[in-house]
Amino acid sequence: MSERPKPRSVGLGEPSPARSRHAGRRSAVALTGELVVVGTATGDVIAFDHATLTEQWRADREGADAAVVALAAFGDAVLAGERGPDGRVRCYEAATGRRRWQHATAAEIGEPQRETRFFLPFVADIVTDEDRAYVAARRYERDGDRRSFRSVVSAFADDGTRRWQFEADASPISLDRRDDRLAVAYNRCPGSHQRGLVVLDAEHGTSHWQWDPDSDGQRRVGDVALVEDGALVASHGDYCGYRLDDGGTVRWRAELATRTTVGDETLYAYPNHVAAGNGASVFVTGNTYAVDRRETDALHPAEHTAFGYGPDGQRRWSADVGGFAGEIAVADHHVVVPGAQHFRTRDADCHGLRVLSARDGPVASRETDGIVTAVAVDGDRVVAVEEPVVYHDDGTERGAYRLLVDRAPRSQSARSSQGR
What we know:
It comes from Halomicrobium mukohataei (strain ATCC 700874 / DSM 12286 / JCM 9738 / NCIMB 13541) (Haloarcula mukohataei). It holds the Pfam family PQQ_2. The protein is globular, with a radius of gyration of 20 Å. By secondary structure, it is mostly beta strands. It has helices spanning 106-109, 412-419, and strands at residues 8-11, 28-32, 35-39, 45-49, 55-59, 67-74, 77-83, 88-93, 99-104, 122-128, 132-143, 146-157, 162-168, 171-178, 181-188, 197-201, 207-211, 221-227, 230-235, 240-245, 250-255, 260-262, 265-277, 280-290, 305-309, 315-320, 329-331, 334-339, 352-357, 361-367, 371-378, 381-387, 389-390, 397-398, 402-407. The strands form nine sheets. The protein has a five-stranded antiparallel beta sheet, with no helix packed on it. Strands 1-35-32-31 form a four-stranded antiparallel beta sheet, with no helix packed on it. It is 3% helix and 54% strand. The protein has two domains: 6-168, Lipocalin; 255-407, Lipocalin (Beta Barrel).
């Protein structure tokens, strides 16, 4: 997108810059009507007019430090999820910013074992439909070498009444909602819950069916996307992508970033995201890791890569996404991938946004000075949060904490589909 006008931007404050390694989410962004809503590292929720970027309202953080890490439009309201001592979900009136209700997920999953980031109760994801909001929250504990999680998935009515909850001693990482189903992806399963994917009845919270990659270790599923007659799954257990039929039968399996020998090391990368759109499937992989050691100078050939597959499970395209993507955004024919640090190479040129066509691959890219950590898309409207970063072996601060507002170019397949 270098030949196109630069995105519009507005500052969000001056938090401490990110460092070489990923420290987890601390920002969120969502589109609702004519508003862009941002959740910040300091716990504020700010709404801007999409056209003018003038601030419409601001809901300041209340109580202890808590970053807003999840946002979702919910009818005429906005839901904000925290990483903080209470792991709160807050509901704001979209037009005014008036708080309607809030709920502390720590009431179900417990208070933090330590007052440090990784131990804080964490709202991992929020998805909504016309009547309900579905919230996944988790809390981590450690006792010597023993690691454990407590988690809850809850359904809330628009007045904050909780309709049902589904508890597990595992770590939910993402949700997806379609027709009468709610899919829950569990990233780590160190306890009695040993299923990486649970598909629930959205009305009652009971289990429709469950699935697991049946691999060794605690790592299970990185992301899930429901389709009309099943689901797409990014498997952390075996570094593959799956197309499942309803009930969990495997229709096809795609090797994405499976174990590969580079020099004298065996490397892998986790598939962290999956999207379904326009009859196609898109998987996005993350960082390189070595099997027998923590550090490695080698890179897996399929790290930080988006892969596109057709309905038959045949790979159609692949594309480099530059760096680590903490999330992706999907709308219509577009998949938008934000690029954050590449902590092994610390290459600042990878920072930015990639716009992909689900069917055909790369459409455009946008370079940024800082890292892009949160993104939302609605039609051709793309919004993102850029954060400043300082790499440990460089010392230069790049970028700023700001909201970016851009337009996604139309892919040829999107133009053709709209013309029919």
